[in-house]
């Protein structure tokens, strides 16, 4: 799969929408600037791990990342969808 940043953002947004289906009655708007932990209703660190694993599987990663969630940075700060996409793109570029 030719992995572009746009594709990664699309996969992340779709996975977030799918996760939200069981949580909210009406879909929340999710963009590249959305910070899932904090912006989305009842989206917590456990859900972020589930969404991360789903995205890595969907994007064709053979190895799981060393971090449990694409949405939480090393100093435990929540990331936007765009920042998570950038993080995933960096992993894909590693040999």
Structure explained in plain terms:
Helix 1 (5-21) packs across helix 3 and helix 1 (5-21) crosses helix 4. With 95 residues, the protein is an all-alpha fold. It contains 4 helices and no strands. It has one domain (5-93): Orthogonal Bundle (Non-ribosomal Peptide Synthetase Peptidyl Carrier Protein, Chain A). The protein starts with a helix and ends with a helix.
Q: What's the structural blueprint in terms of helices and strands?
A:
Blueprint: H1 5-21, H2 36-39, H3 45-58, H4 81-93
Helix pairs in contact: 1-3, 1-4
SSE ordering: HHHH
**Coarse shape:** globular
* Biggest pleated-sheet summary: none
User: How many distinct folded domains?
Assistant: 1
What helical percentage do the residues reach? 40-55%
Average pLDDT: 90
**Radius of gyration of CA atoms, rounded to a whole number:** 12 Å
CATH architecture assignment name: Orthogonal Bundle
According to CATH, the fold-level topology is Non-ribosomal Peptide Synthetase Peptidyl Carrier Protein, Chain A
**Alpha plus pi helix count:** 4
* Strand segment tally: 0
Would you identify the regions where 5 or more consecutive residues have pLDDT less than 50? none
Strand content: under 5%
Structural class: mainly alpha
The separation of the N and C termini measures 16 Å
CATH class categorisation: Mainly Alpha
């Amino acid at each position: 799969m030719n992995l572009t940043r746009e594709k990664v953002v699309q996969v992340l947004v779709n996975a977030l929408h799918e996760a939200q289906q069981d949580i909210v009655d009406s879909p929340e708007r999710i963009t590249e600037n959305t910070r899932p932990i904090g912006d989305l209703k009842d989206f917590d660190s456990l859900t972020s791990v589930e969404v991360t694993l789903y995205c890595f599987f969907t994007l064709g990663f053979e190895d799981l990342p060393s971090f449990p969630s694409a949405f939480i940075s090393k100093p435990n700060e929540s990331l936007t969808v765009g920042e998570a996409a950038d993080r995933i793109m960096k992993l894909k570029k590693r040999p």
